[in-house]
Design brief:
49% strand; seven-stranded mixed beta sheet; four-stranded antiparallel beta sheet; mainly beta
């Protein structure tokens, strides 16, 4: 079972950049697809981005393409989310999540939160306008 800890959140101004990190432990990191989700106050959790087990394939929410970049370092057991040109509407708690790779999902990166059984505690990102 993998344990996940996010870091890097904070208070920034609109237009700034921020890089979130998620450190994994307890299991073979490269056995998991990794996803980033966010939840704003009073709203449902939404998909942000995901990266496959090798780092060779990524997926993004359509509304965030071009501003956010997801990457992973399997040697360091970390996944990162680079967020540029931040907007007030990006304010949310950001979570990383993990889904173990199997035969049925080796080439499919999930974007549905219900498919990810392992979650971090979240990190708050606040963008002031």
């Amino acid at each position: 079972q993998v344990q996940l800890v996010e870091s890097g959140g904070g208070l920034v101004q609109a237009g700034d950049s921020l890089r979130l990190s998620c450190a994994a432990s307890g299991s073979t990191f490269s056995s998991y697809h990794m996803g980033w989700f966010r939840q704003a106050s009073g709203k449902e959790r939404e998909f942000v981005a995901a990266v496959n087990w090798s780092g060779g394939s990524t997926k993004y929410a359509d509304s965030l393409k071009g501003r956010f970049t997801v990457s992973r370092d399997n040697a360091k057991n970390t996944v990162s989310l680079q967020m540029n040109s931040l907007k007030a509407e990006d304010t949310a708690v950001y979570y990383c999540a993990a889904k173990k790779v199997g035969v049925s999902n080796l080439y499919r990166i999930p974007s549905d939160a219900t498919e990810y059984p392992y979650w971090g505690q979240g990190t708050q990102v606040t963008v002031s306008s």
